[in-house]
Amino acid sequence: MSNSFGKLFKVSTFGESHGPAIGGVIDGCPPGVELDFEAIQKELDRRKPGQSKIVTQRKEPDEVAFHSGIFEGKTTGASIGFLIQNTNQKSNDYSHIANTFRPSHADYTYDKKYGNRDYRGGGRTSARETANWVVGGAIAKQVIPQIKINAYTSAIGNIKLDTPYQELDFSQIESNIARCPDVAKAEEMIEYVSKIKKQGDTVGGVISCVIQNVPVGLGEPIFNKLHAALGQAMLSINAVKGFEYGSGFDGAEMKGSDHNDIFNTDGTTKTNMSGGIQGGISNGMDIYFKVAFKPVATLIQKQMTIDKDGNEVEMMGKGRHDPCVVPRAIPIVEAMAAMVMTDFMMLNQASKI
Fold it and tell me: Can you give the pLDDT at residue 280?
């Protein structure tokens, strides 16, 4: 099982949803980075459960403790070890699925691959694991402070924010529990998720992300393309079913004469259909992409499924689950983007030595 992400800036993680703790080790972080621990905790607070009425009501403080690689508030260049305690497990909520496979979960595939599974919240397959990624991403952001990364909710169900990101005020993202920079759209989204939750159902959505102040030259043209790495990072996030950058799928409907980004004399482009990446290499324009999340698979409704013996059985989800993961996934998208950008900045520097 692969538990590591990154090449030079590398994060390796451990832990299960209902185990005593989760945590990880960050290798390759440069020495001398003065860390803002409040900023790191703030990122975790953005992801943690129980933060609003439209997310899971599991109550976890998600306080991170660092055990190595930091001295007097600065990174030393050694491995950074960290731990996040699990304090609010309710494993009995999952006893009814000990021998049952939940539809559209990893239960069946995990069991068939490994011959066993931790049914308590999904064990290693749980999105609880992403708290570790947020720690890595929060530190990565501080390694490359010049690069700005902003993710926001651009759709929940069929409620969509079509405003170009250049016209949005990113300071409004955290002003509402939907994490949508358009407050009016946010209210529609919140009302819709609340309605879906009362029905015992779930709904998916889309997160848009913008990366600004990116230098020219990150990435390589063959098997280390920058957009490919971002795609891998985003598709590693639980519940993600789609990734597109730049013009994305809309570009397939356009003519080349409309899609080509014409150069200005300084090397910038008049448009940015390329999404800041050409030939796998950053071109200095904003990188922007979208990530599609499916509805959460656990429903508080009766569904037919099968058990370990292949018998058809009826089941219904229990416990505390997100009716929509999108608002809590915002810091996860940013974290994964930050780790990719930090890794590629370091790879670019190493290639010039």
Answer: 98
pLDDT under 50: residue ranges of the chain = none
Going by C-alpha positions, the residue among 217, 208, 209, 351 that lies closest to residue 284 is: 217
Distance CA 348, CA 353 (A): 9
pLDDT of residue 92: 59
Cβ neighbours around 219 below 10 Å, total: 22
- Predicted confidence at residue 315, as pLDDT, reads 85
Burial environment of residue 296 by CB neighbours within 10 A (0 to 12, 13 to 18, 19 or more): buried
pLDDT at 78: 98
Q: What is the pTM of this model?
A: 0.95
CA–CA separation, 58 vs 48, rounded Å? Answer: 9
The pairing of strands 312-316 and 302-307 is antiparallel
Angle made by CA atoms 200, 205, 209, in degrees to the nearest 5: 145
pLDDT at res. 331: 98
pLDDT digits (tens, 9 = 90+) for 52-63: 888 877 778 899
Residue 5: both structure tokens together: 């992400």
